């Protein structure tokens, strides 16, 4: 009898150890622009709890970040003088960041991303109306000057590369366009005729998200709060499918947004959307709206990519950035005017449930996640 009990206990302990080994080691990075630091956290994969591990100095107004495909390098853009791009090696066991490379930036970049092979860093410049491509070395290190430049029109706000690594899409807030570009093996960008697709007038296309199956692109308008859905054609061009209006404008009595320049001082509550992300399984899509301090969630139809509203939730104050863990279980939200970041469980139906918070520096904006099995 005792032997049987001991055997059962041993099996139980072995099972617990095995299941624990299957959990990823997940680290969250949040850029605190005003403090000039990147805050580091460990995420508990079972509970969603966040443990603050420390802050890595970035030497200036650090904002957009991107993770290399191999998860070994974190990249960021510093938007204060001297403007530059920088990278850090990610310690897969501790989450620590070690300086790896840096180079002067040719412009102020509110958005950076990497191609799918980790050979190029793409950067969108709002102030200059440009997209630049920088080459990355075999070791992931940055190299200047840029190797490709595209004039985008006023206020380029994002640039992402599709799953084939042959197309790039740029949200241009000031022209109500999403540019469609071919990304060539040498890093050059050229237009995919006619070069762009239009969104609704004065919507202010900002960030975009591609569905995991690469069939659809969703763009959120900063000034309208609307989500525009496009279908991606085999040649990389986009065709508009539908518009989904802001889910929070009426509830919070928000007026249509306007472009927020450095001298902006309008006290009118206006739409001010920011970020958009889709879960790795493609089931749910989430967008942020800063004036109402909300995240809104949608179910994504597996057939045609159409969106169905789930709900909206109050989150950290003025949420600029969100990110979703690779397993699709947790959403992390930062707030530009919040002293904490929040961890949210993504429930079975896409509902968000706040489970934890952790302290963060001033003007928290971008969120990046590294998950290592």
Give a concise summary.
The chain is mainly β and 373 residues long. It has one helix and 28 strands. It has one domain: 7 Propeller (Methylamine Dehydrogenase, Chain H), CATH 2.130.10.10.
Pick out its properties:
Methylamine Dehydrogenase, Chain H, 4-stranded antiparallel sheet, globular, 28 strands, mainly beta, 373 residues
Structure notes:
Helix content is 6%, strand content 49%. With 373 residues, it is mainly beta.
Helix and strand arrangement:
Layout: H1 2-22, E1 25-32, E2 37-43, E3 50-57, E4 62-67, E5 73-78, E6 84-90, E7 97-104, E8 111-114, E9 120-125, E10 130-135, E11 148-151, E12 156-161, E13 167-172, E14 177-183, E15 189-198, E16 205-210, E17 216-221, E18 227-232, E19 238-244, E20 273-278, E21 284-289, E22 294-300, E23 307-314, E24 322-324, E25 330-333, E26 340-346, E27 352-359, E28 364-372
Q: Would you tell me the structural class of the helices and strands?
A: mainly beta
Oligomer: single chain
Q: Output the CATH topology.
A: Methylamine Dehydrogenase, Chain H
Computed over alpha carbons, the radius of gyration is 21 Å
Q: What is the typical, i.e. mean, pLDDT?
A: 94
Shape: globular
Helix share bin: under 10%
Walk across the major sheet and give the strand order. Answer: 3-2-1-28
- Total beta strands: 28
| Amino-to-carboxy terminus distance | 39 Å
The helix tally amounts to 1
Order of helices and strands: HEEEEEEEEEEEEEEEEEEEEEEEEEEEE
Annotated CATH homologous superfamily: YVTN repeat-like/Quinoprotein amine dehydrogenase
CATH architecture annotation name:
7 Propeller
Broad CATH class: Mainly Beta
